[in-house]
């Protein structure tokens, strides 16, 4: 009985040690050295204003939007929301440095929009968003791609789903 248990454990360990993933995956882009400071800058840009909670929530959603399983337009939607809140801060006369904060947050949104997204496979490009941004400041900006990608990025047919349209609520 003891020998069969020992053999079972030994065989299981041997099999597990030889197991390897079928595909190398490219994860971790949502916490890269490029984007991590942007999340803090997002929060800092609205600190002390009536928009701190909303922009803080967007900084959390910004992390989520870079995940491989998220829809192709989620990153652009977050950037659109950041520009929306930036313009609101710039127009708010109770914020002494509102125009400066507006400019700063728009620049942060532009930088964020260029951030590389995770992909389900190393060397595979992430999907592009198939709709125009809601604000002209983001026109022509798309996310960076995996430098090891050997194909061009696709635009999925579901990139314009209603749940991915800009809605500032």
N-to-C span: 67 Å
- The structural domain count equals 1
Q: What oligomeric state best describes the polypeptide chains here?
A: single chain
pLDDT averaged residue by residue? 82
Helical region count?
5
The Cα radius of gyration reads 21 Å
Catalogue the unreliable spans: 159-163
Order of helices and strands: HHHHH
Secondary structure category: mainly alpha
Counted beta strands: 0
- Fraction of residues in helix: 40-55%
- Globally, the shape reads globular
Residue share in β-strands: under 5%
Largest sheet: none
Signal peptide: 1-19
Region (Disordered): 140-169
Protein name: 1541_t:CDS:1
Biased composition (Low complexity): 146-160
Descriptive account of the structure:
By secondary structure, the chain is an all-alpha fold. The protein has one domain (25-164). Helices cover 45% and strands 0% of the residues. The chain is built from 5 helices and no strands. The model is unreliable at 159-163 (pLDDT under 50). This is 1541_t:CDS:1. Residues 146-160 have a biased composition (Low complexity).
């Amino acid at each position: 009985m003891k020998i069969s248990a020992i053999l079972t454990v030994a065989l299981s360990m041997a099999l597990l040690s030889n197991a390897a993933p079928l595909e190398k995956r490219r994860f971790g882009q949502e916490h890269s050295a490029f984007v991590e400071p942007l999340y803090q800058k997002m929060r800092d840009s609205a600190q002390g204003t009536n928009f701190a909670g909303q922009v803080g929530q967007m900084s959390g959603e910004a992390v989520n939007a870079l995940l491989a399983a998220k829809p192709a337009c989620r990153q652009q939607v977050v950037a659109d929301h950041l520009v929306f809140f930036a313009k609101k801060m710039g127009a708010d006369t109770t914020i002494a440095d509102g125009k400066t904060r507006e400019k700063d947050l728009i620049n942060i949104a532009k930088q964020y929009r260029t951030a590389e997204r995770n992909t389900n496979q190393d060397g595979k490009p992430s999907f592009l968003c198939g709709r125009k941004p809601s604000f002209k400041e983001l026109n022509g900006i798309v996310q960076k791609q995996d430098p090891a990608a050997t194909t061009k990025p696709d635009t999925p047919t579901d990139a314009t789903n209603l749940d991915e349209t800009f809605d500032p609520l």
